[in-house]
Specification:
The complex is a heterodimer of chains A (about 200) and B (about 325). With about 200 residues, chain A is α+β, with helices and mostly antiparallel strands. In chain A, about 25% of the residues lie in helices and about 10% in strands. Classes of the chains: A alpha+beta (about 200), B mainly alpha (about 325). The interface of A and B includes residues 34, 53 and 62 of A.
Chain lengths: ~200, ~325
């Protein structure tokens, strides 16, 4: 394949080729090009752009991180959360063990026993976050929506075992009583500010 | 009487050193803020209100950082090289008249350390000697990036020196004096007598050469991060690196004063604005131009810089001198 064919191989019909200005042949043409570029003032276009950006108010894209954080999308998969039932306040997890089975990193481990009402109860539930690849299969397979991913991405800690125990992941009682348990909107759900991204369709004009 | 002059000169030198070093430090803060706003960022925000105490934080960091001397470096030269940068930059300021004469407690002060009659020549010479700092630093630190930086220093010196010298020749032919006070007094007749109107080409060429002389952005090839890590300063840390930094900003202030005095009317008062305020406005605008250009323009390759200086700017400077000479005759 020649070079020309090679460089044009994927061009769809709508592809516009940019015709650059021809390379000067003689010294006089070089001089003419240099002179026209010198008096064109193209350099001042760049100066104008950055000056306008500087003078525009509220133009900063900086998020001063510890003070303000961006809202994570519902599909974001960070540290897991174990949710409780809204009505009774008991744990949603029924101890079916599906998450343990499906986990491809083999990082979930649960121990179950029968409680005094002969119902299955989870006595130990740990996730080894050193192994977890945050694939989200456990949350997807859970029949009770008990284990979900939260948006807590700040998972640096002094101990390797932090966040990994059931007590860390379960919604704390005071938080639960204050009705602060965030419901998992489901995979593929829209983010809260999705409306602000919707633009008018061309038909509206 | 003799002692009075000595004491006065020493006091002036200390004041110039302190004020210019402070201005240089503040210029780093301004640079970070202006660049940040031009790039839609906030810049330093956490240390003090709007990050104004970042200066102090940087100073503490530079002073307390470990001073590393590489094992195979030529140690005496490696250690002395960073001193050259601020020393030459501040020595060059000895011949600059910063403000108009003023009277303090009945004593007339001329805010110039020493009014020598070859002032401009002295400044250009000493400022060019400042290029020994990156050259020696780069060659003594046994580092390939530093060596490349040193080689580029020579390229830069060979390129801009001829342009800045020839560009200044034309206005000096009109004035007939090398003293900056005489140059300033030549433009005493208001905004119309500024030399930028009669010598626009020399103004342009000298500003371009000034950017090259201070290693600022279009010509910052001796320390360009993307190509040669940090150029001559790759191996330096702590206060030795800080000395290079102070030297660079002091050079920026020197060039700003030179352009303001030679081409933009200097410290002559304008309308109701006194001369001291006028020159402060001019050098502030000029330092802003340095930062503005850094935010907007890409830098040139070393060969492009030589090409520009020798093939474009030097012939233009020569033509400018020729035309000025014909007009003067």
């Amino acid at each position: 394949m020649s070079l020309e064919q090679f460089s044009k191989r994927d061009a769809s019909p709508g592809y516009i080729f940019y015709n650059a200005e021809p390379t000067p042949k003689s010294g006089w043409e070089y001089f003419k090009r240099g002179f026209s570029r010198a008096i064109k003032g193209e350099l001042f276009v760049g100066l104008k752009i950055v000056l306008v950006e500087m003078l525009r108010k509220g133009n900063s894209h900086t998020i001063s991180y510890p003070q303000e954080k961006i809202e994570m999308a519902p599909r974001y998969r960070a540290i897991h959360k174990l949710l409780k039932l809204q009505e009774s306040g008991s744990e949603r997890c029924i101890g079916c063990g599906l998450c343990e089975k499906i986990c491809i990193a083999n990082c979930i481990r649960m121990e179950t026993k029968l409680d005094e009402n002969s119902r299955k109860e989870v006595s130990q539930y740990t996730i080894n976050f050193g192994r977890c690849i945050f694939c989200g299969y456990c949350a997807e397979v859970c029949p009770e929506l008990a284990i979900v991913h939260s948006g807590d991405y700040e998972n640096a800690s002094e101990q390797r075992a932090h966040f990994g125990l059931k007590e860390d992941m379960l919604t704390p009682l005071d938080e639960f009583k204050a009705n602060k348990q965030k419901e998992f909107p489901g995979f593929g759900a829209l983010s809260d500010d999705a409306d602000s991204f919707v633009k008018k369709t061309p038909l509206a004009y | 009487m003799d002692w009075a002059i000595v004491i006065e000169t020493v006091i002036k030198a200390i004041v110039v050193l302190a004020v210019i070093a402070g201005m240089a430090a503040f210029a780093t803060y301004i640079e970070r803020k202006v660049l940040a706003f031009m790039q839609r960022r906030l810049g330093p925000m956490n240390v003090g209100p709007h990050g104004i105490l970042q200066l102090a934080a940087d100073g503490i960091k530079l002073f307390t950082k470990e001073d590393i001397v590489p094992q195979n470096a030529v140690k005496p030269i490696y250690k002395i090289a960073p001193v050259i940068a601020p020393v030459t930059a501040f020595t060059a300021m000895a011949a600059i008249p910063f403000f108009p004469e003023f009277t303090l407690f009945g004593y007339t002060v001329t805010p110039i350390v020493s009014d020598i009659n070859v002032g401009i020549l002295f400044i250009m010479g000493v400022a060019s000697a400042g290029m020994y700092a990156p050259l020696l630093a780069g060659m003594s630190s046994t580092n390939k990036w530093a060596l490349l930086g040193a080689a580029r220093t020579v390229i830069a010196l060979l390129s801009f020196e001829v342009v800045s010298g020839l560009a200044l020749l034309a206005p000096l032919m009109m004035i007939g004096s090398l003293s900056l006070i005489d140059i300033n007094d030549y433009q005493i007749g208001g905004i119309g007598s500024w030399l930028v109107w009669s010598q626009p080409m020399a103004f342009l060429l000298f500003v371009i050469a000034g950017f090259a002389e201070t290693n600022r952005t279009p010509f910052d090839l001796i320390e360009y991060e993307a190509e040669i890590v940090s150029g001559y300063a790759t191996d330096y840390s702590g206060m030795r690196w800080g000395l290079f930094f102070i030297g660079e900003y002091a050079n920026m202030i020197t060039i700003s004063f030179l352009v303001s005095i030679i081409f933009l009317g200097g410290y002559n008062s304008f309308w109701i604005i006194p001369g001291a305020i006028m020159i402060l406005i001019k050098i502030s605008a000029f330092i802003f131009l340095f930062l503005w250009v850094r935010a907007a323009w890409p830098h040139v390759r070393p060969d492009q810089m030589m090409w520009l200086c020798w093939k474009i700017l030097m012939p233009m400077a020569l033509i400018n001198i020729l035309i000025t000479g014909i007009v003067l005759i």
